[in-house]
Amino acid sequence: MGQPIIELRHVIQRYGDHTILKNINLTLEPGKFYTLLGPSGCGKTTILRTISGFNQVTSGDVLFDGHRINDVPANHRNVNTVFQDYALFPHLTVAENVAFGLTLQKRPKSEITQKVDQTLKLVRLAGYQDRAISALSGGQQQRVAIARAIIMQPRVLLLDEPLSALDAKLRREMQYELRDLQQRLGITFLFVTHDQEEALAMSDEIFVMNNGEVLQSGTPVDIYDEPINHFVADFIGESNILPGKMVADFQVVVNGQQFECSDAGIPTDEPVEVVLRPEDLTLTDLAHAKLTMTIDTQLFRGDYYEIAATDTRGHSWLIHSVNPAEDGETIGISFRPQDLHVMRLHEKEAEFDARLGTYEGTEDADHDQP
Q1: What average pLDDT does the segment 30-50 reach?
Q2: Measured by CB atoms within 10 angstroms of the end CB, which terminus of the chain is less buried, N or C?
Q3: Which Pfam families match (predicted)?
């Protein structure tokens, strides 16, 4: 790992009686796409505001290129922000919006014109210089907001749920465009979303947050395949999470039955939770089934059927299958040992907390901002 561009060390942020950020530790490397992922009110936007300089931390340090910037004002930090509502000026043209920062710096008019043209070309809006903001689609307005941010050549671009106002098809298209733009620019993106699919599709690394804490960080594959606790497993994609018990290395009991798994090093007879993703479950005949259950209902999702079922012990299951089933039918399911992911109830979380540092407070984060 090279020199980090941004570091948050033991950052705590309080607003009155509310603790919004609880001992946040995270590191951003140059040229990567990072995502803060979590439910509304978990502290994601507060982290962006802390990095950009709009918030002063209660305690802890914010570092840029290894230098502490707690007291550096927002306009002197080499970061820029794309806001959820874009914050464009409706009375200015596209070119005037994009040029706004350079105009404030009193750059020569010829330089501004040249950079605006180059930047609009970069975001695929060449020829839109004289358009009114009101004449643009939502996706085009978002591109203008991004152009206004990147024309200032920030080292870090902060994006606060910039896709949330777009319809589903355009949102998916913009995911590709943002990822492509980040790779072409080679600057660090820190993206905020509560959309798990969006985070998994776009990110080099994800920070999963809840109640003002970073619960887990890693690549999308790491986060999806190896969730650290119940919240992460449940929040990232669809999951079947069941109580279990380790009986030996690579052997776990679930639903009263012993199965081979890919986990080892957990004490014998330790209670655990076992995760099985819906897409890892295969419908099979009862003679070859590892578990049997009854179909409650199913929904056609286009490329698969989403099947809700109940097993013989009353646990609810979600199954993704390319083949339909009949409501009320008794079916068998099968899975591979590597499809069973075992989560320890306490120790695994404690190990992660030890790496991040432990927060001793008791307050909960109720919202991102006061």
Answers
A1: 95
A2: N
A3: ABC_tran (PF00005), TOBE_2 (PF08402)
